[in-house]
Amino acid sequence: MGSEACGLPVEIENLTFAYPGQPEALRGLDWRVPAGARVGLLGASGAGKSTLLLHLNGILRQKSGKIRIGETLVEERTLATIRRDVGLVFQNPDDQLFHLSVAEDIAFGPRNLGWSESQVQQTIQETATALRLEGLLDKHPQQLSSGEKKRAALATVLAMRPRVVALDEPFANLDPALIEQLIGLIHGLSATVILISQSILPALACCSTLAILDQGRIAAEGPAYEIARDRALLGRCGLDFHYYRDVWRRLETAGG
Ligand SMILES: Nc1ncnc2c1ncn2[C@@H]1O[C@H](COP(=O)(O)OP(=O)(O)OP(=O)(O)O)[C@@H](O)[C@H]1O
Ligand SMILES: [Mg+2]
């Protein structure tokens, strides 16, 4: 399922943010994601990944610093444009699903954008097919399994064809076949993609670049396989996943 328009660049300059009464979660963060890039954002639990994402379409407002999506600064007067261009898939799908059926949730964004009813219906069908939601369109979102909810939340965002798609833990609660399918779908998006995932292998399969958020800043960024091989860096940031190698080795030698 491609997006009609291609991706927009994301530029973040000196971004600082603190929740009320808390220490700073983001501390002078600088980051640039080129148009059309697919970048994985890794970081330990509590590092500030979701907090950063919520700044991209102005849900959270920075204490200082600037965020630019394409040519547009994220600020009060540009929020309508920004929210059309930037689609956020929240970590918790319950924050994204409000209607009485999955179909109505998918239709909500396109209707708000003023699409014709036939375009809206076509988009519901296309998005449902892409995310294997065909049999669930009439269901109440609260009656879905966790993995189904994740896919429904993703559908509500992709239906609007945003030019920047930011996904917060999209692989959570998906089975291996659905993870493989989602990796393919992410590859097919012609948008800029920012992917937050603690599932490092699927992130590696999706992204050409990985960035690591640590202590409120981007601590490292580079070609995905270089970052994923740097065990010392991953270990310092609480992200070393190389112990899985032992599992793979045992799997390869088991019974043989
Ligand atoms: N609504 C909130 N009010 C106060 N503090 C918050 C709030 N949301 C997050 N925090 C704090 O801000 C910091 C960053 O949280 P954030 O949710 O961005 O982390 P994360 O990297 O997304 O973690 P995870 O991988 O567990 O989802 C944490 O210390 C967290 O406790
Ligand atoms: Mg998070």
What distance separates the N and C termini? Answer: 42 Å
Give the H and E element order: EEEHEEHEHHHEHEHEEHHH
Which radius of gyration do the C-alpha atoms yield? 19 Å
| Total discrete domains | 1
Q: What is the CATH T-level topology?
A: Rossmann fold
Q: What is bound: which ligands? A: adenosine-5'-triphosphate, magnesium ion
Name the features.
single chain; 256 residues; alpha/beta; Rossmann fold; 6-stranded mixed sheet; 4-stranded antiparallel sheet; 10 helices; 10 strands; binds adenosine-5'-triphosphate; binds magnesium ion
Architecture overview:
The chain is of the alpha/beta class and 256 residues long. The chain has one domain: Rossmann fold (3-Layer(aba) Sandwich), CATH 3.40.50.300. The protein contains ten helices and ten strands. The strands form two sheets. Strands 6-7-8-3-9-10 form a six-stranded mixed sheet, with helices on both faces. It has a four-stranded antiparallel sheet with strand order 2-1-4-5, with helices on one face. Bound molecules: adenosine-5'-triphosphate and magnesium ion. The site of magnesium ion has 4 residues, from helix 1.
Layout: helices, strands, pairs:
Blueprint (H helix, E strand, L loop, with lengths): L9 E9 L5 E10 L4 E5 L6 H8 L7 E6 L2 E2 L5 H7 E4 L12 H11 L4 H14 L15 H13 L5 E5 L7 H13 L3 E5 L3 H7 L2 E6 L2 E7 H6 L1 H6 L7 H10 L3
Parallel strand pairs: 3-8, 3-9, 6-7, 7-8
Antiparallel strand pairs: 1-2, 1-4, 4-5, 9-10
Helix pairs in contact: 3-4, 3-5, 6-7
